[in-house]
Design goal:
With 286 residues, the protein is of the alpha+beta class. It is built from six helices and 14 strands. Bound molecules: 2-oxoglutaric acid.
């Protein structure tokens, strides 16, 4: 699925672009599923837990920002994310089974669909390591006018920026004074024909411009980590990433993890059936 050169390039640069990686059969299914939500949005007057709409959205002229957690709402998205090309690609890049974190479909609507300011992802959902990566699929052709995703090669190995404002509120973007220190001329814009795939590491500085074209720019994004990586609870979106968050794809978890350079074999996952007491465990009660 990937050459050694591509994998090495991802490690070095923190991103990959794979033109026309997803085939027309998948694209047709994904677009049909997406269209259902665009239709559904016509009844909305405000965003809800499934759809985020722009100010100015109307029944006649829908303007969607995001479908939240697509695999929770449609079988096609579920199958695509859990078994399809992005899952296979994540396993190839991370070298084994992966842990699904979350997914979203960013529409970036035509004629002014909003920019995504420069940011890194890991502060939104810290993990016990920096393996998480996000795989984006353009459902339509994307050119420069449409606000393609921009990445700053190598920035995944650099500073982790503070995404709070000076007043202490969460901004979700890198402060202007820090942006001034970035070499934005080195930004690579990931455009391409429908089905093209973007991959970026969780520490990559990235964002995108407004969509100035008359065409929406649907980008279906899904995040996976290595199976040995765990979301840190109590920070950001961890724990509220949808029904499928935490699903392991392509194997099982060994419960091995490493924190601050120290490896351990963690206890089994008791989050579903409840934790036994130490007495029960030590007396081998099952
Ligand atoms: O939709 C885009 O262009 C970028 C998306 C992104 O970075 C995000 O939603 O975190």
């Amino acid at each position: 699925m990937l050459s050694a050169v591509q994998t090495e390039r991802y490690r070095r640069d923190g991103y990959l672009q794979l033109d026309s990686f997803v085939d027309l059969a998948w694209l047709t299914e994904l677009r049909a599923a997406s269209d259902l939500f665009v239709e559904m949005s016509r009844n909305l007057e405000a965003s809800n837990k499934v759809l985020d709409i722009e100010p100015g959205h109307t029944a006649d002229q829908p303007r969607l920002r995001r479908l939240i957690s697509p695999p929770d709402h449609h079988e096609t998205f579920h199958r695509f994310t859990m078994e399809g090309p992005p899952a296979q690609l994540a396993m190839a890049l991370l070298g084994g089974p992966v842990r699904f974190h979350h997914s979203k479909l960013n529409y970036k609507w035509s004629d002014g669909g909003e920019e995504v300011k420069w940011h890194q992802d890991i502060q939104f959902w810290p993990h016990t390591d920096f393996s998480p990566l996000t795989i984006g699929v353009y459902l339509d052709d994307v050119d420069d006018e449409m606000g393609p995703m921009g990445v700053l090669p190598g920035s995944h190995l650099g500073r982790l920026y503070d995404l709070y404002d000076d007043d202490g509120s969460w901004a979700g973007s890198i402060h202007e004074r820090d942006v001034a220190d970035l070499d934005l001329s080195a930004m690579v814009w990931l455009r391409g024909p429908a089905g093209s795939v973007t991959v970026h590491n969780c520490c990559m500085v990235h964002g995108s411009m407004p969509n100035l074209s008359p065409r929406p720019r649907p980008l279906l994004l899904q995040t996976y980590s290595s199976v040995e990586s765990y979301p840190v609870m109590g920070i950001g979106a961890n724990g509220v990433t949808g029904r499928n968050g935490g699903t392991i794809i392509g194997g099982t978890a060994s419960q091995m993890l490493e924190i601050a350079g120290r490896a351990m074999h963690g206890a089994p996952d008791w989050s579903k059936q409840g934790a036994p007491t130490i007495f029960g465990s030590q007396q081998q009660e099952r």
